[in-house]
């Protein structure tokens, strides 16, 4: 009887020790996992479900006659932005680099009325319009400049009652800043439909595509620019 009690006591001790080891292991694993995830790469801290994003009609209402711009700013060498089409999240290229989101009215003044800028940007990233434009942009940069511009210098969104547009800024193989714009019409029901266009301004004056909120059209930023419009 005594021997059985001793064996039973030893078994209980071993079980308790095993539980302690398992708890310690899981604690260490959790700490390591948290350390690896402590980055500034996400636009939203925790929200990443489409059910929590703006609907297409809500996006167009919030963005109407406004510009929303997202870019990475910091002092590190590779302070550029990468967008994941899977998660709809933007990521900066280095540690000392943060995503900065700004919104402006059609007259250029800062718009502080748009409170949840992070939700707006991620909602825009999840639009079919943006996803297809981004895919086309990668093909465009590789074909024209020989660089698949996964790393962007910034993205700007525009919209009025009739058109939504997105501008991608990137650097070519020479390190010079380039850009291209994509636009698509909005129907009377507030849906992004109709033909999509690629607007490309090229020249020696630092060309950039510009969106006109009054007319819903694009123009080039300077005289020495040639505009190429392609329906896609």
Q: What is the helical fraction, as a range of percent?
A: 25-40%
Percentage of residues in strands: 25-35%
Supply the helix-strand structural class: alpha+beta
Mean pLDDT comes to 79
Sheet bearing the most strands, described? 7 strands, antiparallel
Radius of gyration: 25 Å
Number of helices: 4
**Shape assignment:** globular
Order of helices and strands: HHEEEEHHEEEEEEE
Low-confidence stretches: 1-8, 17-49
- In spatial order, strands of the major sheet run 4-1-5-6-7-8-11
Q: What is the CA–CA distance across the termini?
A: 86 Å
What oligomerization state is this entry in? single chain
Number of E strands? 11
Describe the fold and architecture.
This protein is α+β, with helices and mostly antiparallel strands and 232 residues long. The chain has 4 helices and 11 strands; from the N terminus they run H-H-E-E-E-E-H-H-E-E-E-E-E-E-E. It has a 7-stranded antiparallel sheet, covered by helices on one side. Strands 2-3 form a two-stranded antiparallel sheet. It starts with a helix and ends with a strand.
